[in-house]
Each structure stands twice: as C-alpha cells, then as structure tokens.
Amino acid sequence: MRHLIDFGDLSRAEWDSLYHRCSEIMDHPADFLDACKGRVMASLFYEPSTRTNFSFQTAMLRVGGTVFGFADPRSSSVAKGETLKDTVKMVSGYADVVVMRNPLEGAAKAASLYSNVPVINAGDGGHMHPTQTTADLTTITRLRGGVDGLSVGLCGDLKNGRTVHSLIKAMAKFQGVKFFLISPRELAVPEYMRAFMRENGMWFTEVTGLESVIPSLDVLYMTRIQRERFVDPLEYERNKGVYILTRRKLERARRDLLVMHPLPRVDEISIDVDDDPRAVYFEQARYGMFARMALLTDLANQPRMDPGAVEIGTVPVCRNPRCVTQAEHYLPPLVKQNGGLTCCAYCDAALE
Ligand code: NCD
C-alpha cells in the first residue's frame, strides 16, 4: 500500500496485518513510542473535524512523530487561490505523510497523483472515509472477535455518509456479512455503491424502518443526516430527526448488539442510550486513534517517491458537481469500471 484513498486499496491480508499491528500497539503501547521518530505528518483539513483531526495528531505524537498543518483553509494559501496540486506538491516536500480532508469528492485521489509521500484520505466530501473504517473494523474485531458472518444495520444518511460507503467497501473483504440499509428513500446509498455490492455478491436489503430490523442485528451503525451536503435545505428539513435510537427501541435488540456511530451525533441516538453497555461509540473513537497509529507506523516510514509526470486535463468528463475535477481542471480525465458501469476514477459517479 502506498496511499490510503479508498478502503478498496487495501487487500484483506493488508488489513489483517494492519489490525495485528494495531492490537500490538493497544496491548504494548510502550514498544511503539519511537516507531515514527523523526517523521513529520502534514495535516490538511479543508473541512471541519474534531475526532479525525485530533486522533491523527495524537496518533502521530504517540508513536514519536511530529505534526504540522491547518484546520481551516482560510489560514493557508488556498485562500489566495492556490491549486490543490501546488499545495500538495509543496507540502509533500516538507512532510513524510500527508493526511487530507476536503469537501470535494475525489480530492485525496487527486492529491495522490502529485505527492512524493503517501496521502491518507481523511474524508473527501460525501464519498469515502477509509480511516474511519479502520476505527470501525478495529472496534468490531476487538469487541466481537471478528467481522465474518455479522448482520450489520447501517442507518441514517446513506447517500451522503462517507463513513458508510467506506465501511461497505471494507466488508466486501469478509465472508457472509449481511447489510440492512436503513434510510429514507431519498437518502439511500448511491448507485455506485449498489453496483459495488452486486458485483461483489454481497447480501443487502434496503428498508425505511429501523424498529422492525433491530432484533436481527449484530451491529447497528447509526449516522448523522449530513446537513452540509444538502443542496436543497428543504430536503434536509424533511429528513432531519427521522431516526432516533432510544433506550426503549433497544429493548428488542440482541444483548450483544454493538451500537456504533462515527460521531458527531446530533439527535439520532438519544443520550439515555449512552450508559447501555451495547453503546460503544466513544470506545470506537478511541480505537480510531490506535488504528491510525498502526497506519502511520507503516505509511510515514515509506521512502519518498517521485510520482512522475501526470497528463494535463482540459475539460472535466465527470458531471458530478461535487467532484474534484469540476474545480481543478488540470486533472487528467481518469475513468474506471465498477459493476459494469464506467465511473469517474476520482468520485466514482457513473459517467453517461
Ligand atoms: C464523520 C465524517 O466526518 O464523515 N465523522 C468522523 O470522521 N468521525 C461522520 C459525520 O461527520 O457525520
């Protein structure tokens, strides 16, 4: 693995070895205090973040590395109109690893084309968030012993929720996972995710009601309605508060259910659930730090590499208004195949 842009970039063997490293770190943190000694992480956050930004920073500090970057692009040259390419080329000259969150879908993939050091996608718009998935899989594996054969309910904004998309991608690497996709119809998973699940022979069902499926679940993964991704504010108003998990709704759930949430929560899990032993979302955030420590000990220690010349694009081929190619016109027009569809290689949107 050179970059982590999409969880699909990781083979099952690579995930298993990352988890193994993560377990060693959790069990023997003192053995890893210098694992990234002398290494520097750049943290480029073009979009708000608490957990991901803090957990990456604390992860790097706990393995002996140092950190620089911005949490608000208004304080960087981005505000002067600098392209993503120029920012990344320059930053990758200073750092050993670049962690980037950006509101444009495919931004981390675009950055990786120009970087001399590994790029880690810390969230690209409503597209993907693979390091949240390392937190999620670590939580499930640590608390349940494994992921194979589980029934997983994903509930909320499955259209714009990037953590959901990355988790589904990851689950393709395990055996016999069943997905209950719980969302209002207008917030169902994007077509490229459906195509991905079909292509990988994954079992899934799409429903609108939460209560009827709760008794069948081993994991219930709640998500926030992603207000900042809505073009139409009325669509947000129609869907906010649609799912609220309460203590009463959990009465019919399995006793060993895991209630997960990438956080931040708004109102989709009521506070009276927090003290239920099945609620593991705060532990999940802590597991995320250990997973990022494991990731950084690998990626921050890789040799620098010249990415080579990149073709210069002229007009975007992708019509998704939130795709990075709509804003950064020099990007090469890359495409890929996904479940029989020709898709944009940056944001996965199907090309007509
Ligand atoms: C998520 C994100 O940013 O996508 N948060 C996180 O990284 N833990 C989920 C969200 O914002 O709803």
TrEMBL record:
Record carries keyword Cell wall biogenesis/degradation: no
Gene3D superfamilies cross-referenced by the UniProt entry: Aspartate/ornithine carbamoyltransferase (3.40.50.1370)
Ranges where the Aspartate/ornithine carbamoyltransferase Asp/Orn-binding domain occurs: 148-297
Catalytic activity, EC: 2.1.3.2
Residue positions binding carbamoyl phosphate: 51-52, 101, 129, 132, 263-264
Superkingdom in the source lineage: Bacteria
Residues holding L-aspartate: 80, 162, 224
Any one of the GO BP annotations: 'de novo' UMP biosynthetic process
InterPro entries recorded: Asp/Orn_carbamoyltranf_P-bd, Asp/Orn_carbamoylTrfase, Asp/Orn_carbamoylTrfase_sf, Asp_carbamoyltransf, Asp_carbamoyltransf_Asp/Orn-bd, Asp_carbatrfase_reg_C_sf
The entry's keywords: Pyrimidine biosynthesis, Transferase
Enzyme class: transferase
Cleavable signal peptide: none
Classification via SUPFAM superfamilies: Aspartate carbamoyltransferase, Regulatory-chain, C-terminal domain, Aspartate/ornithine carbamoyltransferase
NCBIfam families: asp_carb_tr, PRK00856.1
Subunit structure: Heterododecamer (2C3:3R2) of six catalytic PyrB chains organized as two trimers (C3), and six regulatory PyrI chains organized as three dimers (R2).
PANTHER family named among the record's database cross-references: ASPARTATE CARBAMOYLTRANSFERASE, ORNITHINE CARBAMOYLTRANSFERASE, MITOCHONDRIAL
Name the UniProt record assigns to this protein: Aspartate carbamoyltransferase
Protein's organism: Intestinimonas butyriciproducens
Gene that this sequence comes from: pyrB
